[in-house]
Design a protein that fits this description.
The protein has 129 residues and is α+β, with helices and mostly antiparallel strands. The protein is built from 4 helices and 4 strands.
């Protein structure tokens, strides 16, 4: 399973839909799928289903399809564990020499999977020391 924790949009030719459905079932299960055919046109059609439940199309489709895969269902976000404040402050000081406070906070949040508020407070402390 590909563990991207966000919605994904694909624009594909309709003739290849069955290939992509097999691909989605293999790598993107536990998501919802939305398929839009001929969006914003007179003969638009929409299909909504769970990825593991969608069937391949028996009839050939024409045109371009827009496919949206939702975030995975039941995503388990890691809980914040005890983190070493001294190490984070040291890391923040190093980054603050080169980058803005906003960029440093974003970098540390993504790297350590911590709450933005806690990291911001630590970065402010590091900046003022």
């Amino acid at each position: 399973m590909i563990n991207y924790n966000f919605n994904i949009v694909f624009f594909i030719p309709a003739i290849k839909i069955n290939f992509y459905i097999r691909f989605f079932k293999k790598y993107f299960f536990k998501r919802k799928i939305f398929i839009a055919k001929e969006m914003t046109k007179l003969h638009e059609t929409f299909y909504r289903e769970n990825v593991e439940d969608i069937e391949e199309f028996k009839n050939k489709l024409k045109g371009e399809l827009t496919i949206v895969l939702s975030k995975p269902d039941n995503v388990q976000y890691p809980k914040e564990v005890n983190f070493d404040k001294r190490r984070l402050i040291k890391e923040a000081k190093k980054y603050l020499k080169r980058y803005s406070l906003k960029d440093v906070v974003k970098l540390i949040v993504e790297k350590n999977n911590l709450s933005k508020k806690k990291v911001y407070d630590l970065c402010l402390k590091a900046k003022n020391e």
